[in-house]
Write a structure and sequence with these properties.
Strand content: 15-25%
CATH topology of the largest domain: Rossmann fold
Strand order of the largest sheet: 4-3-2-5-6-9-7
Mean pLDDT: 92
Order of helices and strands: HEHEHEHEHEHEHHEEEHHHH
CATH superfamily of the largest domain: Vaccinia Virus protein VP39
Bound molecules: S-adenosylmethionine
Largest sheet: 7 strands, mixed
CATH architecture of the largest domain: 3-Layer(aba) Sandwich
CATH class of the largest domain: Alpha Beta
Number of strands: 9
Number of domains: 2
């Protein structure tokens, strides 16, 4: 879909874009193809696309032969997409808030894609279907959506997402840098990042005020921690980063016995004065294992 086609669709339907929904549409064919290539799609894959907009990415995802479940919040766009992909059997569209949808699914511990949609026929994948997230995310809800999926027990095997550059850098951050923090660890526990490329603002219509980048995340197999210990990990890192400049031991003392913490810190070689931003993912995992015993 070219920029001219996008403008014509918006004009003919009298569609005014909504800034609060992050409606910056990607029209650059090269960037769209790079995103799809990073997803390494096979015809057996199930793809979740959040925020399909006018469908420039959707079109390429479907061309790969994969099935696509798209969730779009703006009803004006779902009306258009239903017409545009009316006769495509592998396309399912939900009109919903994606974050609400994922949180509802997480409550039941169901895989987000294992869903017979009320609006389309048979989108139910076989139990073994691989599923991936490929999306140009609405920036205002990108971080909570990524965390929700990253911590989901049936999270996607791969996530290829376009984000605000600053957020992508936080996901991929190295320990002991300003970008390293809660987002790095909550996503890094179950996902490894491999590859980040910038997308110039001029590739979007309208051009966003912020810089953008696409990042690829691959699920770790086997997981570094099981379900129960993952919940403990979330509690520990949230508490440890609750006041970034404070010593981690002091912060953790409000939730765990001091003697247990001191013994764990000594075993792992963490200084009692250490702040969370100096502590690696591996050491946080070690801490959780010791606190769980
Ligand atoms: N994928 C399209 C593209 O690349 O051109 C559009 C991407 S645009 C950055 C984000 C899209 O997400 C918009 O279509 C917007 O309406 C939609 N959106 C915003 N918030 C949403 C939410 N909470 N749930 C689902 N879709 C949302």
């Amino acid at each position: 879909m070219t920029l001219t086609e996008m403008r014509e669709i918006l004009k003919s339907r009298d569609l005014q874009l909504t800034k609060s929904l992050g409606q910056n549409f990607l029209h650059d064919g090269n960037q769209l193809r790079r995103i799809v290539a990073a997803a390494e799609l096979a015809a057996t894959d199930k793809v979740l696309e959040i925020g399909p907009g006018l469908g420039p990415l959707t079109e390429l995802l479907l061309a790969s032969g994969a099935s696509v479940l798209a969730i779009e919040k703006d009803s004006r766009l779902t009306t258009f997409l239903r017409e545009r992909f009316a006769n495509v059997p592998k396309f399912t569209l939900l009109h919903d808030d994606a974050l609400d949808y994922l949180q509802r699914r997480a409550g039941g511990l169901q895989p987000p894609l294992d869903v017979p949609s009320p609006e389309a026929g048979d989108c139910k994948p076989p139990a073994t279907a691989r599923w991936k997230l490929v999306a140009n995310l609405p920036y205002s809800v990108a971080s909570p959506i990524l965390v929700e999926l990253a911590l989901h027990p049936h999270g996607p095997e791969r996530m290829v997402v376009t984000l605000q550059l600053e957020v992508a850098q936080r996901v991929a951050a190295a320990r002991d840098t300003d970008s390293y923090g809660l987002l790095t660890l909550l996503i890094g526990l179950h996902y490894q990042h491999s590859g980040l490329f910038r997308i110039p603002a001029g590739c979007f219509f309208p051009a966003p005020d912020v810089e953008s980048a696409c990042i690829t995340l691959t699920r770790r197999t086997p997981p570094l921690l099981g379900g129960q210990q993952t919940r403990l990990f979330v509690r520990v890192v949230k508490r440890a980063f609750s006041q970034r400049r404070k010593m981690m031991l002091k912060l953790l003392k409000s939730e765990w016995p001091e003697d247990k913490l001191q013994a764990a810190f000594a075993t792992l070689g963490i200084s009692p004065q250490e702040r969370a931003e100096k502590v690696s993912l591996e050491v946080f995992i070690g801490l959780c294992r010791l606190l769980a015993t």
